[in-house]
Amino acid sequence: MTIFDEMAADVVEIFAEFGKPIRINDRHFSALVAEPELSLELEAGGFNSAGNFTVKMLRSDWLVSKPVVGTLVTYDDKHFRVIRLVSRPPHPLVILTMEPV
To answer: Where in the sequence is the domain holding 35, given as residue range(s)?
Structure first.
């Protein structure tokens, strides 16, 4: 068993206890979600939501859902778009950076 296998087993337990539900492509997953820091920015024509936050999901879930930059994700009944993705095999986590739609 490699260190990454051990990390993956530990992360599964952490997600089971502390994970938050997210939805990608009509499939539900558990993820660690940083508290979103969102604000309103004044733009031509009015205010627009701004800000971003990170979502850490299991690589095994990522391989099933295959989100890419631009994918819509639902969290807390709100829609967000993936703007960055960090995947470093064989690390057990994939990190998504999200912003409001």
So the answer is: 3-100
Q: Hey, what's the torsion of the CAs at 50, 54, 55, 56, to 10 degrees? A: 170
CB 56 within 8 A of CB 93: yes
d(CA 98, CA 89): 21
Report residue 13: phi and psi, to 5°.
Answer: -65, -40
What pTM was estimated for this model as a whole? 0.83
Q: Could you give the number of structural domains in the chain?
A: 1
- Enumerate the β-bridge partners of residue 95: 56, 86
CATH number for the domain spanning 30: value is 2.40.10
27 Cβ neighbours under 8 A, 6+ residues apart: 64, 65
Quote the Cα angle for 77-93-20, to 5°. Answer: 25
For residue range 22-32, list pLDDT tens digits in order.
999 999 999 99
